[in-house]
Each structure stands twice: as C-alpha cells, then as structure tokens.
Amino acid sequence: MTLYRAQILLDVNQHSRLQSRAVDSGRSMSDLVREAVDAYLEQATETEALRRSLASIDELSDLRRTIQKQGGMLETTLLDQLREERDADIAP
C-alpha cells in the first residue's frame, strides 16, 4: 500500500479532541483520521447509489403514468392472471 503524506489543518479544539481519542484508544491520530475519511467516502458512495436508485424509481413511475395515459389501466383480473403466469414460470 502506498501512503501519501498530506497536511491537514485542524483547529485547536479539533486537534485536542482527536489527540485525546487517539490516546484513549491506543491508536495514532493519523489512523483515526484515515478511518474517518474511509467512513465519509463510504457514506458518500452509498448516498449516491441511493440517489440513483430513487431517480430510477421516479423514471419508472413517470413511464408507468405515460403508459396508463396512452393505453389505460390494465384490468385487475388480467393483471392478476399475468402475475400468476409469471409466478408459475418462476417457481418450478
């Protein structure tokens, strides 16, 4: 693993609190900062994936409304029949 040296500027309170946590946990301040950065990056990735999923759902809802406007609603009995056929195809 390649390590890069970065200068991180913390205010006095942040430095003091981070140093205290490092001492309490028996870890280095650098290790705690790397862990915090990893957690932030993971959260950002998950947030973006969720945003994309919600956008896809919105697009599908729009498409469904467009289809309903053009062709009307699918009758419930027909819809139930199609679901049953699909379920039969899926489950042996």
Q: Can you characterise this structure?
A:
With 92 residues, this protein is an all-alpha fold. It has a domain at 28-90. 78% of the residues lie in helices and 0% in strands. It contains three helices and no strands. The chain has helices at 12-25, 29-71, 76-90. It is elongated. The mean pLDDT is 88.
**Beta-strand share of residues:** under 5%
Uncertain ranges: none
The percentage helix is over 70%
Along the chain, the helix and strand elements come as HHH
Termini separation comes to 49 Å
How many separate helices?
Answer: 3
Shape category: elongated
Largest sheet: none
Helix- and strand-based class? mainly alpha
What value does the Rg take, in angstroms?
26 Å
Number of β-strand runs: 0
What integer is the average pLDDT? 88
Task: Briefly characterize the structure.
With 92 residues, the protein is mainly alpha-helical. It has 3 helices and no strands. The chain is elongated.
Q: Which keywords apply here?
A:
single chain; 92 residues; mainly alpha; 0% strand
